[in-house]
């Protein structure tokens, strides 16, 4: 009887702790959902132009050049948004930045809806681009700062999953809806987010950085529930880390451009060129039903990105990136060999199937790691005192790379389809070495522990004689 009472008394605190943790995770999940509505909006903007091209050009009498401006100006707006995203998020807070982003996106969609010609259409697209340029930075940063270390990777990976869902949904729905109505559907996630932002807390790390102590503790309590020990432990860890940063010198521009933080190698692996011009690639390869191929190309990304969100906290960031880099290399190499066979009239009947297989391997491999994990790392590896400036630079570099690859893709394909994919496969092969040698593993560590590890590694490198 005494043993049973003892076991009961031991189980009660454990059950109470489990109940508190479950409640706090529900708050974190709800908070994350509100934030990643911005990611869905990001995807909606990216997926809008493809299904409406013929309808818009016909109704507004646009030339191919005018519609090309409409499609590409989104990246211009995103680059402008990227430049300002870090400063806005540091000055206005993470929630404030999301409000501004939603506001610009809503205004942009309304401008597109009322467009009677190219000018207002382009202005609306530019405003949407500015909005998603901010979203691309602030959403993964915010989720990374509010999520517990054991689920942070998976929640941060939801950013990419929602981008893919938003783009795919808009692409599919756009085949059925009139283009003006489709523009109005882009407003919906922004309105829901603006409403939801009133019910979620600000990033506790940002609050601590700006000295809002009362709000800082309040945010931690909302995220951790009644678990006073967890609140006290995380509060002390964050404050100790901020005190340490005060005694360190400010980061230089060279620090912000360290190669481990750059997205260049991802963009120049060809993902935007392949994604934007997949239909053209399938047609040039002789795929008989390019529409079915496009649907397969778009739909495969959603389940694989969902799997990535589950694996990132179980397998780690680095293994997923290595697997992803290897797969993207293989997919590009298969496509290159396939087009080489077409150029030399070898096994012509196999070329369409091989190109389709290569691109599906490429985009599936990209989705499992290179699509989501770099955004997870972006939310983890920068010190909070340089996160705004560094994040803006990485975000700008990401959008510039996206524009450069999408702009040069057609020129490269005109030069040589096989050569194009050989170039991309070379970049993907280089990314395997890059990830293996440079990228840190951050699984299962708090943001403060990650910074301590990175600083320790840097100090050891600096202590080595030349």
Instruction: State the total count of DSSP E strands.
Output: 0
Low-confidence stretches: 251-262, 459-466
Run of helices and strands: HHHHHHHHHHHHHHHHHHHHH
- What is the 3D form? globular
The CATH topology of the largest domain comes to Growth Hormone, Chain: A
Strand content: under 5%
Determine the N-to-C terminus distance: 71 Å
Main sheet summary: none
**Approximate helicity band:** over 70%
Number of spatially distinct domains? 3
Mean pLDDT figure? 81
CATH top level class name of the largest domain: Mainly Alpha
GO molecular function: sugar transmembrane transporter activity
Main location: membrane
InterPro entries: MFS_dom (IPR020846), MFS_ERD6/Tret1-like (IPR044775), MFS_sugar_transport-like (IPR005828), MFS_trans_sf (IPR036259), MFS_Trehalose_Transporter (IPR050549), Sugar/inositol_transpt (IPR003663), Sugar_transporter_CS (IPR005829)
Family: Belongs to the major facilitator superfamily. Sugar transporter (TC 2.A.1.1) family.
Condensed summary:
The chain crosses the membrane at residues 27-50, 62-84, 96-114, 120-143, 155-173, 179-200, 261-280, 292-312, 319-341, 353-378, 390-409, 421-439. By secondary structure, this protein is mainly α.
